[in-house]
Every structure is written in structure tokens, then in C-alpha cells.
Amino acid sequence: MAQNVQNHPGERLGRPREGAGSIARLGRRVGALFVDYGAAYLISGFFGWDPLAILAIFAAIQLVFIPTIQGSPGHRIFGLRLVRLDGAWVGLWRPVLRTALLIVVIPAVIWDADQRGLHDKAAGTVLIRG
Questions:
Q1: How far is C-alpha 60 from the geometric centre of its chain's CA atoms?
Q2: Of 40, 67, 77, 129, whose Cβ has the fewest other Cβ atoms within 10 Å?
Q3: CA distance 120 to 98
């Protein structure tokens, strides 16, 4: 019986091993998250460092920038783009679902063989190198 073995993350999604269009790796993802969360943390200083303000600002950053520039500022700084599986524009509802699940944290740390978190699977998106 033949096994469905994949040589690199994203191969079964038709993504290249490396370079533009390949699956974003952990280091870039974490770097982007630190940029976005750090920005939310700094901006929240205007509101008294309220933890809920930090999350709300983080969510707003995601919701404003993902549909407009194909990723958050952190994603773009680290050379990443968020696209649908077919490479098309993510639209408006996918960033809402993805961000809600990202804030819950658990779906973002459970990955499949393609290194897609449950938040990306649920939204039908993939974070790729731009």
C-alpha cells in the first residue's frame, strides 16, 4: 500500500519547497506575531495598558491590514502574505474568523503537516512567503 508522503510542508497544497509562494516557516511567523503584538502593546499605552485594549488593538491591526495589504504589518515586514488556498484575495470574512481564532491562541498552535494552524484551516487561508 502506497503512503502519501510529503517531501516539504505545502507540497500537497501545490506550494514550492522554498522561495516565493512557499509555506511560511515558524521563525518568520513568530517574528511577525511579535511585531504585531508589540505594536498593539505600545499603542495600548494610550489607553492605560489595559490587557483587553491590547487584544482589541491586535485584532484591529489584523482586520484592517490582512484584507488590504495581504497580511498584517508584521507579516509584510517578514516577507509574508496571507492568501486563500487558491491564491486569491482573502476577502472580508476570512480575516474575521482567522483573527478570532488567533486570539483564542490554541487553534494557532495546533498545526497540520503543511504547517497551517487550525485558524488558517478554518478560514481556508495559507500564510506564504511573498
A1: 14
A2: 77
A3: 6
Cα(79)–Cα(69) distance, rounded to whole angstroms?
12
Q: What is the pLDDT of residues 51-106, one digit of tens each?
A: 999 999 999 999 999 999 999 999 999 999 999 999 899 999 999 999 999 999 98
6 is a domain residue: no
- Per-residue DSSP letters for 13-34? GT--SSSTTSBPPHHHHHHHHH
Q: Establish if 109 belongs to a structural domain.
A: yes
Q: Is residue 26 part of a domain?
A: yes
Q: Give CA–CA dist 61/42, Å, rounded.
A: 13
Domain count of the fold of the chain: 1
Q: Which residues contact 24 (CB under 8 A, 6 or more apart)?
A: 78, 80, 115, 127, 128, 129
Range of the domain at 97: 22-129
Q: Which is more confidently placed, 124 or 48?
A: 124
For residue 16, being part of any structural domain is answered with: no
